[in-house]
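User: Please predict the structure of the protein below. I'd like the answer in structure-token form so I can feed it into my own downstream comparison script.

Assistant: Understood. Taking the following sequence of 497 residues as input:
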Amino acid sequence: MAKIEGLVIGIDFGTGSSKGVLARLNGEVEASSQVEHRTSMPRPGHVEHDAEETWWVDFMSIVQDLLRKADGPIVGITTSGIGPCSLFCDASGAPLRPAILYGVDTRAYKEVAELNDTLGHDALMDKCGNILTSQSQGPKLLWTVRNEPWVWEKAKYVFMSQTYVAFKLTGEYVLDHLSASMFDPMYSPKTQDWIPEWCELVAPGLPLPELKYSNEVAGHISAEGARISGLPEGIPVGVGSTDAFCEALSVGVKDPGDVMLMYGSTIVADLIADHFMAHPNLWAITGTYRDTFCLAGGLSASGALTTWLRDLIGGVEYAILIEEAEEVGPGSNGLLALPYFAGERTPISDPMARGVLAGLTLSSTRGEIYRALLEATAFGTRHLLESMAEAGGVGKRFVAVGGGTKGGLWTQVMSDVCKIEQVLPKFAIGASYGDALISAQLVGAADESTSWMQEAAVVKPNRDNEGLYTDMFGRYLELYPATKDVVHFLAGLQLGG
């Protein structure tokens, strides 16, 4: 690889914060930066970001911070972000409304049901490899057509967070193949192209972005992009991708059989493959790199559950709650939870699902409830991994990343429930580090075989807990269908009858 001097930047836009990293071309981190932001939930089922006040303001803040810390020239930059999401902009690139976020936004549940019925299960699986869920962006575009025609009349662009920033920097209108895979029913991973007739069905008249792979050049920073950002004119801007998959690159999850488990506000599991695989309750998508594919899925709420509990009981420190949960032991003293507090993405694909906590008594403690919520996310992940196996996608190597890997309890519960070993990276910086790796590829200082991951530890399952957790997992699978009708009724009341 070429000997090139300089520094690269990677920036990721998350649900509750944005993070950036400044790195040398060998992966050595020089500086990092983080900005918190607000996620708006204007009504039940609606989850949004203000693109200017969140994505662009965060980007500018992080870039300026990193530029001050740079001791050499910036030679490339790439961004990633939450996804899939949809930001509609007018002909000048100005946002027409807040961005509609990924599967936690369930506003288009009627359109999901209608399009699944109209297009048909078999046709959707054949062309897209997926049926439609709250994760699919196509139904949300159709929801906008029907519910906000004043927005649709002016819409000339649809962006995700990373492509919105790339547009402002370069003027180029692009989208990576992986993210396009989640704009069902508009894109086919089989042909790796848009499906014209279905695009017109859900997004009539909307110009669509040029499709590229995540590690390709979206464009080069224009004179205007340099003026507004302070970055050097002419340096390449990577296409980037959805955050979870750039995070996978950051820890060397790139080869067939590799699985990344991302512990955050939600959990995402990403299995790398060298051929197309599909399952009706998972996400069959094109990979970040050319000639790669992914079979993936995600829970709608995981770390968000423990945040909810902590805030509900008055902001008790996590360290105290973890200590109390560790004292409880496996099985949470007979508590069993369903983690569907924000509906559920995979593998049940039910935006009307709701959380359940079974087995409560007057002696139930917050430590027991905290552990039950952790175990619920592990049961949901095991359900997800077993669905992958049904499609022929068997993980050989599991790498755990995200803030939830700190402290030890959650990762141990996950290994015990799922019966897997998990590699913990020495540096789990996040998707922004994967963005920096892509930036290094743009200038020829790295390639698709490059990994910057260093192993720190391995979490092994405690076989003494296997029998108990197998029994409880069976009850977990029974609890959802047993309560489905009740929670659907309650969800209807929450949504206004």
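That's the full token string. The CA atoms of residues 303 and 310 lie 11 Å apart.
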